[in-house]
Each structure stands twice: as C-alpha cells, then as structure tokens.
Amino acid sequence: MIFLKIFNSAALVQDDQGQEQVVLGKGVGFGLKKGDKIDESKIERRFIANSHQDEVNQVKEINASTIDLTNKVIEMVEPLLNVKFNDFQYLALADHIDFALSRIEDNIDISAANTRWEVKNLFPKEYKISEKVIALINKEVKVNLPVSESIFMTYHFVNAASDNDQVQETVEITELISGIIDIIQYQYQMTLDTESFNYSRFITHLRVLLVRLLRNKHHKSGKLDGSLLGFMKIKYKFFSF
Predict the structure, then answer these.
(1) 14-45 exposure pattern, b = at least 16 Cβ within 10 A, e = fewer
(2) What is the 3-state secondary structure (H, E, C) of the chain?
(3) Which residues of the chain are under the pLDDT cut of 50?
(4) pLDDT for residue 9
(5) Which Pfam families does this one have (predicted)?
(6) Alpha-carbon distances, residue 23 vs 13, 145, 166, 180, 238 (angstroms)
(7) What is the pLDDT of residues 90-121, one digit of tens each?
(8) pLDDT of residue 239
(9) Alpha carbon of residue 134 to chain centroid
(10) Distance between CA atoms of 228 and 217, rounded to whole angstroms?
(11) Strands 45-48 and 20-24
C-alpha cells in the first residue's frame, strides 16, 4: 500500500490492486512522499474511495484536531458501553463533533429541549455517558457546549450500541405498541393521527414504559413509574389507567 496525498486528518493511499482508500490513524501519513510505503499497522479506519465516496469526501473535510478529539471520546465511551464503533459510526460522531464546534464559533445553538425528558429516561446510561463526553470536549477544547449536545451525543451512542442489543426486544416493543394503538382506536372508536406531534410524543412515552418493563427497570412492586404515569394521564385524556 502506497501513500498518495495527505488531507486535514487523513491520508489517501492506494492498495496493491490499485484501489484508492482514505485511511485514518495516528501519524499514518506523516513525513511521507507520494509513492512511499504506508505503515499499515498505523491504520485505524479506512474508507474505500469508489464504494464510499460520500464518506471519503466527509473525512477530507474534518479537522485533524477533531479526529484526535474523537479518538479520545471513543476511548472513553467504548469500555463504558461495551461496544466497538464501526468506521461509519466513528465518522458520524467525528462529523458531529466537528459541526458542534463550528456552531459554537458561529454562536449557533440548535435546541433539543423538547426531547430531553424522553432521551434521558429512555436511554439513561447513554445520556449519562454523553454528559461525561461533553465535559471532556469542553475541557479539551476550552468551549462550553450547550445541554442540547448531550441529547445529540446520546443518539450516536445508542446507535453504536444497537448492534449489541437483542433484536427480540425491538420486535416485542414494536408489536406491543401496535397492539396498544389498535386497542385505543377500537375502544374509543377513533383514528389517531399518526403524523401529529401529540401522537409522536405519546409513542415516545409509551416506548419508555415498555423498555422499562422489558428490561425490568420498573419498581419492584410491579407498578409503572408514578411520575411518568401521572404525566400521561394528564397529557393523553383518552386513557383510563
């Protein structure tokens, strides 16, 4: 494998079959000239140019400092979640961190306050880890990322962990939600607007309850979370718990 070109945080290389790849790794292209042999032991991530051109272009644009920061985040998160980020999950996280830091420079804040409650309760472990990650980034880069970034980070960590989740749980939850919706519509002789915001919120809250039940995170008494149950009674008038 030979070296072709260096980008912000990556190196363009060519394998023995003439296939171009963009590779990531500490010092992978440092001090090399075009045609030099690459130390393949330094390669940590790779993207084949023809197959993943969008990802290749994305890698080229990410700052080298962001790649270093992403590596630190990954080193923290992987053992805590017992997961291994694949190349595309890694790239998505690096791109998000890069974009988040650029938003700070431009004083842009994308609010996610209306989903914070759901995310914290549906993915408590991932959310707590995301808070640690935000603290790490703030310390490393000397910035003050908004709380909303914890929510966005949580999505990345849930996605990374999804490969290790039991598919059966997802199937059960989906079937249960479908059955509950059918019962509600039959009982109240109504058709729920599946495109409405209220429906979306209800499904999110319902999913929280089902995840807790399936993962045995409800109270030992077997009763559902009181605060959440009370909230749903008020929010969704058609229920009679």
Answers:
(1) beeeeeebbbbbeebbeebeeeeebeeeebeb
(2) CEEEEECCCCEEEECCCCCEEEEECCCCCCCCCCCCECCHHHCCEEEECCCCHHHHHHHHHCCHHHHHHHHHHHHHHHHHHCCCCCHHHHHHHHHHHHHHHHHHHCCCCCCCHHHHHHHHHHCHHHHHHHHHHHHHHHHHHCCCCCCHHHHHHHHHHHHHHHHHCCHHHHHHHHHHHHHHHHHHHHHCCCCCCCCCHHHHHHHHHHHHHHHHHHCCCCCCCCCCCHHHHHHHHHHCCCCCC
(3) 164, 167, 218-222, 227, 239-241
(4) 62
(5) CAT_RBD (PF03123), PRD (PF00874)
(6) 7, 29, 32, 48, 55
(7) 888 998 899 889 887 766 655 555 556 667 76
(8) 43
(9) 14
(10) 13
(11) antiparallel
Residue where the block lists tokens 């999804």: 162
> What CA–CA distance (Å, rounded) separates 232 from 170?
22
- Name the residue with tokens 């998000």: 96
Q: What pLDDT was estimated at residue 4? A: 73
List, in order, residues 6 or more apart from 161 with CB less than 8 Å away: 81, 83, 126
> Which pair of tokens denotes residue 43?
């390669």
Which residue has 């080298």 as its token pair? 64
pLDDT of res. 11: 82
| Plot region of 39 (φ>0 → left; ψ -120 to 50 → alpha; else → beta) | beta
Task: Label residues 128-156 b or e (16+ Cβ within 10 Å = b).
Answer: ebbeebbebbeeebeeebbebbbbbbbbb
Alpha-carbon 98 to chain mean position: 14
Residue with structure tokens 């809250």? 205
